[in-house]
Every structure is written in C-alpha cells, then in structure tokens.
Design goal:
about 325 residues; mainly alpha; hpI Integrase, Chain A; 2 domains; 3 strands; about 60% helix; elongated
Length: about 325
C-alpha cells in the first residue's frame, strides 16, 4: 500500500471520529481543530510506517509516536511536554472509538501513557489587589465604567471564564433577592448555575438600569448582557483589554481573566469552602483538576505556621 492510500484510509476514520466528537460530545471548534492537527500528524507518522488502517496499528507505533512528537523525530516541530501529552490523549481517544465502532479488535494505545508536564501552580492575587482592580475599572463617567465594573465583578464573583462571561445573555441572570445567580455555559456547552454575592449583584443592577440601555441604543437589539459602544455583544478581546487597562490603573501586574478565576478558587478554599463545591462552581469535570488549588492554600498555611508558631523553627 502506498503512503497516499494509507493516509486516505486513515483520514476517513479520523473524520468519522471528529464528527462523533462534534455531535455526541459537543466539543468546541477550537478543541476539534486541535484534535484534527494532532491526528493528522499521527496519520502522517502511521502512513510512513505503512499502516493504512487503525486495525494495523501496534502498541509500539503509538509509543514511538509519543516519543517522536516530543523530539521532532517524525519531521514535525518538537512539542512541549504538555502539548505532546495532549496529542497522545487525542490518539488514545481515537483508538478507543475505533474499538467501540468495531473497526479494530484491540486498542493498541491502552497502555501508552502521555508525557506528564510539570504541573504549574495557578497564579492568584490577594483580595486587596482584586478590589483595587475592581475600583479602578469604574473610574469615570458614562455607561462604560458601569459596564466594566459589572463585568469584572461577575468574573470574580462567579469564577467564570472570559468566554463564558461575554457569552452571557440578560436572561442568564437572576437578580431576585435571595436567588442571585448566573447561568454559565462552559466547555462542551455544559451548564452550571453559580451564586453571586451582593457586590456583583449591585454592580450588575446599576449597569442594567443605567448603562446597558444607553449602549444598546446604538445597535439593532441583542440579548447579550455586555455590550460594546456600538450596541453589539462585547468581544472576548475587548473584555481582555478592559481587565488589562483596569489592572494597569490599579498598579497590579501580570493579570489575566484566568487570574481572576484562579483567585476565586484559591480565596474560596482559603475561606473554608469544600473542594467539591469549588469544583462545581468552576465547572471542572474532575475534582483532580480543582485539587491543584489546595496546594496553593496549603503553602499559605505553612507560611503562616512558620512565622506565627513559637516552636515552628525548633
């Protein structure tokens, strides 16, 4: 079999798998594009080894590919451990699907483990830095400062992703007393309802009554919660810029929307919240993802202990 014929057969199986991920699991376009890149590289690797179908693939093929994407031995760019690990995860998912569909009688990737990247602890900033940024966002007159304050208050109050925040519609908010909450749609369009505190509720109420109508007058009507100066839905890039500008005015460096999310999780756990509650609030599929924040809070406890306990230093 020629390399071209091998690649064609594998590509058809890849496309069937990607269609399954899109329809059955509702993965985002960005995630699907990443899977396509990873699997296309795998196809080139397998084709060069004369594998024309997944039924022909052996365990050593998968293991060698995992090594090759990290070193670049397959002719592609060497990937960092985290990216190489993600590529192997995509390959394993494809093989599991092939086994379930009856395309193959074994899963050659079953015992092949992705490279483990060193886990970086999430970055969080102190509560007073968060407050400084929030206050800096509302400096000035007109509807824009009210919008910026409301958006950043919600971002921190709900531990939301920036994409979830700009994707909100008005109907996703509940501001009734005692029921203040927001409906967020996370990865794979999974929904979760997150409570909101008084600061966010007040900021959102001010924005809705005094600012959104002014901004919306310039547009054609949209259910979007946060609007730009043209009356359209605020973009992710514009939301980034709002946070960046507010952080600069507050004198806080290296802040991103994810910093707010990390800070939300860390502050909740430091305040005594159960890790599984924080998992639900963040929309993590596994509590293991959330548990990285417990390392941050344990480090803080150790620092306090070392400086406060009279016998800590022996």
């Amino acid at each position: 079999m020629s390399d071209r014929d091998a690649a064609a057969g594998l590509s058809r199986q890849r496309d069937a798998y990607l269609a399954h991920l899109a329809v059955e699991r509702g993965l985002s376009d960005n995630t699907l594009a990443a899977y396509r890149r990873d699997l296309s590289r795998y196809i080139e690797f397998l084709s060069a080894r004369g594998r024309g179908s997944l039924v022909d693939v052996r365990k050593e093929d998968v293991a060698l590919f995992g090594q090759a994407v990290g070193s670049g031995e397959d002719g592609g760019s060497p990937l960092a451990p985290a990216s190489a690990g993600r590529t192997v995860v995509a390959v394993r998912g494809w093989h599991r699907f092939a086994l379930a569909e009856g395309w193959a009688s074994i899963d050659p990737s079953h015992d092949v483990r992705p490279l483990q990247a060193p886990r970086r602890l999430p970055k969080a900033i102190p509560i007073d830095a968060i407050v400084s940024i929030l206050e800096a966002s509302s400096v000035g007159e007109g509807p824009v400062p009210l919008r910026d304050r409301a958006m950043l208050e919600l971002l921190y109050a709900a531990g939301a992703r920036i994409s979830e925040t700009v994707g909100l519609d008005i109907d996703d908010l509940t501001l009734d007393e005692g029921e203040e909450s927001v409906l967020l749609r996370g990865k794979g369009r999974k929904e979760r309802i997150v409570p909101m505190g008084g600061a966010a509720t007040q900021a959102l109420g001010s924005y809705l009554t005094r600012a959104r109508g002014v901004l919306g007058a310039h547009g054609r009507g949209t259910p979007a919660l946060f609007l730009n100066s043209r009356g359209n839905r605020l973009s992710r890039q514009s939301a980034w810029a709002i946070l960046k500008n507010a952080s600069a005015r507050a004198g806080v460096q290296d802040v991103s929307p994810h910093t707010f999310r990390h800070s939300f999780a860390t502050h909740m756990l430091s305040g005594g919240a159960d890790v599984r509650v924080v998992q639900e609030l963040l929309g993590h599929a596994s509590v293991t993802t959330t548990q990285v924040y417990t390392k941050v809070t344990q480090d803080t406890l150790r620092e306090v202990y070392a400086t406060a306990h009279p016998r800590a230093l022996g």
